[in-house]
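Appendix B, record 7
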Amino acid sequence: MSVAAKPVVVFVLGSPGSGKGTQCEKIVSTFGFVHLSAGDLLREERKSGSDDAALIESHIKVGSIVPVEITINLIKKAMQKNGDKNRFVIDGFPRNENNYEGWEKHMNGAADLKFVLLLDCPDDVCLERALKRGQGRVDDNVDAFKKRIAVHENETKPIIEKYRRMGLLRTVSSLASPEEVFEDVKKLFVDI
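Structure tokens (predicted):
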């Protein structure tokens, strides 16, 4: 990629069910970003029957994290597929130290990370939301949700703290309605 074509990236993190996908849709429609969901990319790859499909399936079923090389490769391919569009919101990534290190190793200097948006919402509300949307998603059941919350607590929160220390974290409460939450979110995107 040339320097002029360096993609602009905003990571969107939060507990499962915190509204990452919903807010990303609003960012796309209002600001013209391309939404890349690490989870959606993995679910699509799982259905493709590729060499990685069975491995991805096993991780998704139990709520564990897929190896970073697979996820980074899918994100890079998705970015390249978007041609001249070079502003991306990536939700659900990085979720642990391995994801963070993988991004730094493979994408540092190749993308311009503007900030990390954290959607903050209590676990009980997130569980209720996840179970409501659960139709067709193998990972939206109580057991998988509890494992995903544990992963968020034990593995993602340290990454969130790392971005906070770097001055890149922007936190928005996602307890209110999606429209009210977006009023706060859009203030962060006006100048990008």
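Remarks on this record: The two ends are 20 Å apart (CA to CA). The helical segments are 20-31, 38-48, 53-62, 68-80, 97-107, 123-133, 142-165, 178-189.
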